[in-house]
Amino acid sequence: MNAEVDQAWRVGQVAGVAMLAGWIAERVLDTGLPVRGSGPLAGLIGLCLGSWLWAWGGWDSGPMLGSVPIIPAFAGAFAVCAVLKLVSLGLASPRQ
Question: What's the predicted TM-score (pTM) here?
Answer without folding.
Answer: 0.81
